[in-house]
Amino acid sequence: LKIVMGTTLNDVVLAICAGALRRYLLEKDKLPNKPMVAMVPISTRNTATDGGSTGNQISSMLVQLATNVEDPIERLEVIHENTMRGKTYQGAVGAKTLQNMAEIVPFGIANQAARLYSRFQLSEMHNPVFNLTITNVPGPQFPIYLDGHKMLHIMGMAPIIDGMGLIITVLSYDGKISISPTSDAKSMPDLDDFSRYILESAN
User: Is the pTM value of this prediction over 0.90?
Assistant: First the structure.
């Protein structure tokens, strides 16, 4: 969906989340000088060439959220530039190549690696590549029913792991969008405040 300045709905969603993050961190006197970075999963499915195949076909893009920019419209413009730059880079690397590399790691090995990463608290020994994850999943843009009862809302949640204290799931359904942050009590004990900031950032 294209809106003013050529930005996309996804850019607007990222700008809403960035505005809430900026306010939350400013109140705690923890806002970094550099913009925070979100890992944003993106679809690599090509309906023209995938032949209706099923399964997830996703890669990811790192996006600077311009949390260092005070004006919300200017922040949106910067995020749009950053997402366009990210898409260009993603195309140069080749999302399919990244996906195929991920698929050759056996699940058992990946599971053991995650346990070791957590057990030895390795997340505390390096700077994170990104600060949070923001997923934006488009759902059906028409009402769906179960046994004659209309589903009113869809909201999401996702797991967090060591070194990642916040994931924001965004789902759209029947012309509405839900933005649902998930964190742990140690990282964000006041997640309700942050949720309210998301709404106020949207406004």
Answer: no
- DSSP character for 186? T
β-bridge partners, 138: 172
Specify whether the backbone of 71 is left (phi greater than 0), alpha (psi in -120 to 50) or beta.
beta
Phi, psi angles (nearest 5°) of residue 92: -70, -40
Contact 25, 119 (CB under 8 A): no
Say which amino acid occupies 114: A
- DSSP code at position 141: S
Planar angle of CA 59, 132, 168, nearest 5 degrees: 85
Element (H, E) at 136: strand 132-138
CA distance 70 to 66: 9
DSSP of 71-105, one letter per residue? Answer: SHHHHHHHHHHHHHHHHHHHHHH-HHHHHHHHHTS
pLDDT tens sequence across 34-80: 999 998 887 555 555 555 555 555 667 889 999 999 999 999 999 99
Using DSSP's 3-state secondary structure scheme, residue 77 falls into helix
Q: How far apart are CA 160 and CA 163, in angstroms?
A: 9
**How many CB atoms are closer than 10 A to CB 44?**
17
